[in-house]
Amino acid sequence: MNRIRLVTGCLLLVAWMLVSGEAPAGDTPGATAGGDFQIEITKKSLGKEVSIRKGHKEWFMMVEVTPENTVVIRQEKENDTFLLDESETHDHSLSAGEVDTAIQDFINSVKTQVKKKK
Fold it and tell me: What is the pTM of this model?
């Protein structure tokens, strides 16, 4: 139960950040969000996946939703080397709004990560 509250709290925080911050990228395949980032968001059954590219780096996130649970996969790759490859399983289905929020949060975190490294 505490895990659900934590996830919900994080999602609400992200939603607030999206409303008060930069406008999110379009929700169509091949959508590009300013700068040198190439961002593609694809609907996948009840979930979505996003692929972000900038130069020789690539980030990927997939949110796969079933009636029983939700699986989130995150990857970061530089050239052919994986820097991050993790997954998490939630014991409930995320709503469409929660999936959208998770995808936008991932996009914003990648942009922030790249901005900090400059």
Answer: 0.70
